[in-house]
Amino acid sequence: MKYDIIIIGGAFAGLSAAIYTSRQGMKTLVVTKDIGGQGLLTNEIQNYPGFDSISGFDLASKFQSQAQLYGCEFSYDEIREITEENSIYRLKGVEQIYEADALILAFGKTPRDLGCEGEEKFKGRGVSYCSICDGPLYKGKEVAVAGAGDHALQAALYLGTVASKVYVTQKGNRISGSEDMIQDVKTLGNVEFVYESEVKEIKGDKTVNALTVKKKDGTIQDISVKAVFIEMGYVAKTQMLKGFVEMNKENEVIVDMNGFTSREGVFAAGDVTNIPYKQAIISAGQGSVAALSAINYVHKKHGKNAVRSDWKFVDLKK
Question: Does the pLDDT of residue 318 top 60, yes or no?
Fold first, then answer.
C-alpha cells in the first residue's frame, strides 16, 4: 500500500511528526518495532512541559493515542532496506513492503535482537519487542520475557497485568535490575523467574508455542508460551542509511534547521540526527518541524499550496 508519508520510528520524534502529518490530511504510516523507544526506560520525566511528572510509557501512549485520533496507521515491523524509484520510496520490512511519497527518519536506537534460533522466523508472529504494543494480544495466555535488567523487569510488570503467566529468563542466579522494580515485580503472583538459563530457540508452527532454554547444568527445558517479548536494550541501526543520506562520523543523519536531509523527499528528526541535544521535548519539536517540511514537499509534488503552520481544525466529535 502507498502512503503520502511514512515515518520510521515510534518514539517522541516519530509520534510528534505523525500527529502533525495526520492532522493535515496526509495518509500516514508509522513503522516501528515498539512505541516509546528509549523513553520507555524512564519512569519519571519532570521536564516535559505540561506535566509535573509523567513516565515515558504514559507520555508515549498519549502521543500515540493522539496520532491515532487523526487516522495515523501503525505497523510493528523493522525496515531492512530503503530504495527510491521515480520519486517513490520503497521500504522493505520483515513482513511487508511499503511505499510513500516522502519519508521521515525518526528512529533513535532500536530494540536489540536476542540472536537465537527462531527469532527471525517468528517476528510479528509471537516474537515482539514491545510489551505495551502487543501485550494485549496475549491476554490470559502464558508468555515469556527474554532479556536483562530494568528492560525485562518493566516488560514483566506490564505483562503481569495482562497475561496469565509470565516467565522471565535470567542468566544469573539472581534477578538483575533496580531494587525498587524488583520489589514491584515480586508483588505479582504470576511472574516466575527462570534462573541460570540461556535462551537457545523460539519454537512454533505458524506462531510461537514454546521457548527453549539451556540451564547452567546443561539441561534443556521447553517452556510452553504463546509469545516471547525480547528486552535486550537498544542499539543504533543506521547501516541501511549509508549511501542513502549524508551522515557524520558518529553515523548520525545530517539535517538542516527544517529537517531536510541530503536526499530530496527524505526528512529526519530526533536522536538519529546530528542535533546534539537528545531530549524528549527536543525530539518532539524536531518531529513537528520535519513533519511540516514533509507535508510541504508532498503538497508541492502534487501541485498544492504550502502550509506554514499546523492551523487545521479537525472536529473529533464527528
Answer: no
